[in-house]
Amino acid sequence: MTQFKSAEEAAAAGKYVRTVRSFVKREGRLTKGQAAAIERQWPVMGLSIAGGQLDLKAVFGNDHPVTLEIGFGMGHSLVEMAHNEPDRNFIGVEVHEPGVGACLMAAEQEGVNNLRIYNEDAVEVLKQCIADHSLDRVQIFFPDPWHKKRHHKRRIIQPEFVELLVQKLVPGGILHLATDWQNYAEHMLDVLNANAELTNLSATNDYVPRPTTRPKTKFEQRGERKGHGVWDLMFQR
User: Fold this and answer.
1) What pLDDT shows up at residue 223?
2) Manganese among the record's keywords (predicted)?
3) I need a surface site. Which of 18, 100, 131, 137 has the fewest CB within 10 A?
């Protein structure tokens, strides 16, 4: 057990503390289409931690509410949401470059211009680039469940991370999670219920029906045909 309460405190004391990551960096190969989309669209839609804290009005050219999605995979549902809500701005964060390329390619094809992308670690994006009380909605759909018990500590939904998310939400802002692993859904529910600043929007104090704003993925549709469940959680700050 480390004597320091956080990695920042350890760094200030000149010590390095290894942090547990919720993802494994997989270096998949880019298709030619993905690579070309990155080359064309990254100068327009790409963001980096090196750019520092975002001025959202300057980035998007308007004052529309902002949704942040963490771990958008190949980005198809994120692009669909951005296309369906032109009066809302979207920021996507994904560590896997092929997913970033696929998302940019889909955004280009749909003519979406209210979307920006980070190819970075979401924790660092939140800490270094997103101002407190600036996000209207945060969504995390189907994060890695790390289903083996010994790996549960790697799950992204943990009390400290939720505190960071809440800090970035405006009062009245929404935290929307979804998973197809019941054990993870129960874990998510426990963690969110334990945060005093969050209120469950479920009429039954557990899960909500899938909101129409969250498109079904092909993976989700395939799972439903096999009888797999999906659990959505919506909490309000």
Assistant:
1) 74
2) no
3) 18
Catalytic residue among 63, 132, 136, 144: 144
The verdict on whether residue 218 carries a ligand-binding annotation is: yes
Active site residue 132: no
> What is the model's pLDDT at position 203?
97
Q: How far apart are CA 177 and CA 138, in angstroms?
A: 8
Any binding-site annotation on 219? yes
With residue 38 as reference, give the H or E element that holds it: helix 32-45
With respect to residue 13, please indicate whether it lies within any of the assigned structural domains.
Answer: no
pLDDT at site 118: 98
**25 assigned to some structural domain:** no
- Which stretches in the chain have pLDDT values below 50? 1-7, 10-11, 14-20, 22-25
pLDDT at 225: 84
Q: Indicate whether 76 belongs to any domain.
A: yes
**CATH code at position 112:** 3.40.50.150
Tokens of 99: 């997913």
The residue range of the domain holding 54 is: 30-236
Residue 211, in any domain of the structure: yes
Provide the pLDDT for residue 23: 43
Domain count within the chain:
1
Task: Yes or no: say if 39 and 30 are a contact pair by the CB < 8 Å rule.
Answer: no
Q: Which of 25, 29, 34, 47 is nearest to 104 (CA)?
A: 34
